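Incident log, entry 3
Record: HAD family hydrolase (214 residues)
Problem: checksum mismatch between cached and fresh output.
Input:
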Amino acid sequence: MRYDLVIFDNDGVLVDSEPLSNAILAGYLTELGHPTTYEESLRDYMGGATHRIHDTILERTGQRLPDDFDETFHARVFAAFERDLTAVAGVTDVLGKLVADGVPYCVASSGSHERIRVGHRKTGLDLWFTPGTVFSAQDVGRGKPAPDLFLHAAERMGAAPQRCAVVEDSPLGVQAARAAGMDVYAFTAMSTPDELPGAHGYFDDMTRLPALLL
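Fresh output:
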């Protein structure tokens, strides 16, 4: 394998959380007087940190979301995770292949550390990630499409950016990886290749990823 580090996005790449969380987000924003469809939530917020929701609503309407928005939103999402969340099909096979090949990997997510922990615990992925291999936008302050999170993860894992491969499923994530100077492979389970321009490769089945990384 030609990379020294593989960096995985979390939501939509490791855990199948995007349909759950975006349906909840669209409903909650609509409830608060900001009509949002599920498709609009995916378009505007998929792959971004929570502050992107606040910034977008403020920019569009001049109104601030309630002070308890994050707490309420996360409570609803975590409850849905506990009921319905699953790991992305085939992802444990990919992780097992990386372990067998001795290739380091980590997760770099726009989601909070708590969100990552809840999802990994529910799906069993906590067995594959130690605390030292889990990175969140909380660690750097700026979420994707800024490159900060990916650069932080690479530095902490001891890998040069140009020796890293990023696995992403959102336009914001692809932009962030490219800005960090990393190769990026786009998982197209929820987006078309045309919606993820700039990736070095595309795949719609997680079991195809190892061959792309060779």
